[in-house]
Amino acid sequence: QEVGMQVKTGLVWLVAALWVSGCATVTSLDSAGRRGPLVYSGTRLDLAAMVGDEHGLRRFNTVPPAYPWLDLPFSLVADTVIFPLTFAKAGGEWLISRRPF
């Protein structure tokens, strides 16, 4: 019983630490400009930070999380959950920019 409570407390602290350090999905969508990446933006920001891709990092108008390897699984889940919204917005912007009139 006590071990279960310790695990739950540890998970709460882990989530709080990630929240304070900045979730890549939240920060990348919050700072996405007209041309900023939307689809799986947090995951892409984490990966760019992990491999040191300066060009990839410049596409985002935000600073990556302090620990991208720790944030990556959470961003992947968050990006997957909001995928229908980001895909619709990105697809809609693409269609609007391609109108012939």
What does this entry show, briefly?
The chain has 101 residues and is mainly α. Helix content is 71%, strand content 0%.
**Low-pLDDT segments, ≥5 res:** none
Terminal Cα separation, in Å? 66 Å
Work out the helix count: 6
Number of strands: 0
- Taken from the alpha-carbon principal axes, the silhouette is globular
User: Sheet with the most strands?
Assistant: none
Strand fraction: under 5%
Q: Decide which structural class fits the backbone.
A: mainly alpha
Mean pLDDT: 80
Q: State the helical fraction.
A: over 70%
- Helix and strand run: HHHHHH
Rg (CA only): 16 Å
Model description:
By secondary structure, the protein is mostly helical. It has six helices and no strands. The protein has helices at residues 2-21, 24-30, 41-51, 54-58, 68-81, 83-97. Helix 2 packs across helix 3 and helix 3 packs antiparallel against helix 5 (68-81). The longest helix is centred in the N-terminal third of the chain and has 20 residues, at 2-21. The model has no long low-confidence stretch (mean pLDDT 80).
Structural key phrases:
101 residues; mainly alpha; 6 helices; 71% helix
Element layout with pairings:
Blueprint: H1 2-21, H2 24-30, H3 41-51, H4 54-58, H5 68-81, H6 83-97
Helix pairs in contact: 2-3, 3-5
